[in-house]
Amino acid sequence: MKTTITSVLAWEVLDSRGNPTVACEVGLTGDARGTASVPSGASTGTFEALELRDGGTRYGGKGVRNAVRNVNGPLAAEVYGMDATDQEQVDAALRSADGTAGLQRLGANAVLAVSLATATAAAAATDRPLYRQVFAQDESPLLPMPMVNIISGGAHAGRALDIQDLLVVPVGADSFTEAIEMAWRVRRGTAAVLDQMGLPTALIADEGGLGPRLPSNRAALDVLMGGIETAGLQPEADIAIAIDVAATQFYDAGSKTYRLEVDQREIVAEELVAELATWCARYPIVSIEDALADQDWDNWPYAAAALSHIQLLGDDLFVTDGQRLARGIADGVANAVLVKPNQTGTLSAARDVIEQARSVGFATVLSARSGETEDAWLADLAVGWRTGQIKVGSTMRSERTAKWNRLLRIEAELGPDTRFAGASTLAPPSTRLHQSTDHRTLVPSTPTTGTGKELRPMSTESFIHRADDIDWYCELQGNGPGVVLVPSGEGDCTSFGPVAAALADRFTVLTFDMPGFSRTSSPPNPHDLTPIKIVDQVAALVGSLGLERSTFYGGSSGGIVVLGLIAGHPELVTNGIVHEVAPGDYRNGKSEPLLPGLCALSDDEIVEQCKLIFRELMNEDPAAWDALGDAYHARLERNFVTWVRHYVNYSGPLPAYGAADLTRRPIDWTIGGLTPAMTFFSNVQLAASLGLQLGLLPCKHFPQVSIPDLLADHISRCVARHTE
What we know:
single chain, alpha/beta, Enolase-like, domain 1, TIM Barrel, Rossmann fold, 8-stranded mixed β-barrel, 8-stranded mixed sheet, 24 helices
């Protein structure tokens, strides 16, 4: 057999940062030989397989002579006589020789060197390119969409920025060749922008990106947008943006805060996520990597919900480890995984992670490291493994261009059989872990933060918008007269999804999370949850989005907001629609705790009541409730505790509304089939005092969940009645 391993030789070489790494050659019986050298990372995840270094004074402690000896000794002895074409068996033997989960004994750099060299030797022996050696026979090669580094910070550029990399994704390209040319144009255009600003561009970062010192992290996004425009390309249509936050690098596990040195701020996870979401609203961002630290598991589901409309990519979080990826899948913390073979130590383990991710619909991105070599095997793996995306670095430095050039060669070889992944390879809506019953493409909107230059509108499902010093989670869709759907006590707008979808063909529909209950909010101050303040806050949001003269719908405490808008901000309102307005006397300014028995329960008991009320009593269709998703259910339980502890137990000063205030705009008022007695009489009394008739919506409590089509029809008829 010509593919039996007969020799293994390792030696020390230098990577692109000038640090030692391991190179290896594997020889076979038929005289075929394969060589490979192992990359090394600067921004390394806490949970990566161990890269063995010598310590001491030689090369500043970064020598790899011990790893080289391990290759030439125990690892070579383990694989002698094995078939090089049986990659899984070879890799299993290498792991067995080490005997530890993280390859701490012999070193992941030593193990990977043999694994890689074996694969290249097998390809040489079978006279096939590596990409054909590694792909499944029932699949065809796929050229990946490149993520190309343009501006660097973090560990890649001396911390010139807190975030590690800003990259471009050529979403408008029809081929890999066109994609690389577009990325080259953006890098040149960005350098020109920096030149005009008087900033140096000759010195480059570890991965070939530009490394300017800018006044803020967001300023780098403005520079990149300028580079796209200077290149003559269209943001979003031609070029999108990806961000590698590498948040682990500036996370303090003790205080559980993130220290942004460039911005001179120390913030918590919710604030960092809100900042990223705001960027997504202002810039054509399609992918964010390591939005939070690799140890900040508790806050990753929150990030997944707030950033649900983009590809949320785990690198340090998953470290190409199947167990960590399985936890991420179970917890719903991302929708894509970055794969780096040196994080896990063998090609087989890296490929297993790719297959594991694919099995649940995750996108996969194969990635180089900041310390690279001239080897191009990564390009072949991306094509053969059909990863769909590849992240190598910039279009400068030979260790980067070696990979790009190999992909250009493969595309030329394949000729008419070439398949290019294109933009569709980014994490599709169906895998985005903030679950919704539909994933519509929404009309362009222009959310703003009130600072910085305005950018052209872009299509989005959701966005973060700053108004009245609050970061609001918003969803906007459709075209036509404005309809604003105001959430009630649960504070979360997810349940309005089916109603908004039904209205979007005739109206511009806005809904949002309420302050204090939002995906962007910190735990609330009770004094910020008073009816007066919330009404003014909602008015500030709607006005800043340019939705004056809209129809407002709200049920329960959302109905109180609608009444407050009619009384205090009639200039925003065409007509109001309310359902089962929450009990209480809202005309004389009195305030007293509501539902005192509920207030006396523990948090766990309140959650159990929440499950009972919302699943059993307030919903006629359990399937509709289940369709809202686990992430929504978890937020609802949290919000219900907030509502009881703060809003119910401290309602604060109430607005003193009179009949003249509440008749400034038309109101349509309904109650439901199982309205509690005190709510029923409160609604009858208040509606009668205004000379209004009560209508009936036959539901239990949340019409947007149990009868969304009927509610949408009701809203449409009310709009028509008051706008004719």
